[in-house]
UniProtKB/TrEMBL annotation:
Keywords: Glycosyltransferase, Transferase. The keyword Transferase applies. Belongs to the glycosyltransferase 2 family. SUPFAM superfamilies: Nucleotide-diphospho-sugar transferases. PANTHER family: GALACTOFURANOSYLTRANSFERASE GLFT2 (PTHR43179:SF12), RHAMNOSYLTRANSFERASE WBBL (PTHR43179). InterPro entries: Glyco_trans_2-like (IPR001173), Nucleotide-diphossugar_trans (IPR029044). It comes from the Bacteria. This is Glycosyltransferase family 2 protein. Signal peptide: none annotated.
Amino acid sequence: MQNKPLFRVKKTKLFKGNLVSLTLSVIIATKDRLQALTECLESLQRQTVPPQTVIIIDASANKKAEVTAKRILEKENINLVYKNSKPGLTYQRNLGIRQNPNELVLFIDDDVILDSNYIKEIKSIFLNDPAGKIGGVTGRIQPGKQKSILSILIRKIFCLSEPGRGEVKKSFANNSIHPRYVDEMFEVQWLSGCNQCYRKEVFNDFLFDENLASYAYMEDVDFSFRVGQKYKLIFIPHARLVHNIQVSHDTRLRKREKQRMFMLNLYYLFKKNQSQTLTYKFCHYWSYIGYLLRGLLLERSFAFTMGTVQGIMMNLSGKNPLMKLLREK
């Protein structure tokens, strides 16, 4: 499966009336993060072009999120759809899709804060594409810390994720958007899970993979990469947001378990989505050395390194439980 070439998209101005006529739902999967969700909803309330509907799929033990959402969204007459759910990001998002009444569907994490023009910017891209060739878009996340030279070298040499132009590597590692490119608009090969918007027609052919349970590492790469085989995916620099990573890095899963899960998911998605030629296989297995070096030299974490080792051993020994599900499918 070859990587698709990138191209730039011309930005044009649109009247606000057109932006309002294109209807949009926001889907938020959440669990026990009321403060983060509150700040996220307040950023939706401040949109210059607000969404028609907010769909909250809540796996919390109580319904405080519903009460809070009603209080915030009713100020802008935004329709709220609230569903209680079992936990699981991919399951929750698919449940949200089934509730959608609108033309566009925007998925955001419960710990993001959108710029006030975010929805206006993403709607403008779809309105400028009457042929429907663009299936999904993602916005500009406020840059995090710069990576060290050692980190960049390890990532580049061993086919790990690195700052780039939104490519998916042969190893199935996914490149982020490098700061030098954040002012350009161009086609990418995957969309960030914390902010990704699609035409409703996409869901006639694609849903999130519910085999990816719990944190569902790389569910965004899997879903958007598959969508990208049929539609164009676009990075929009003017649709800005902040992703409060410090909120996401809680203690629900231990570091060892998280990294083991990541390695299992990576192998499963590589087998599911990538060509199985010798070159692709070499890049994937070569990346295992890079993840080990990352744990030892960059993370300097015994737990991270052991999680990597456990995941690699399960992949190589045929004990990855996801592979049985893939074969059955």
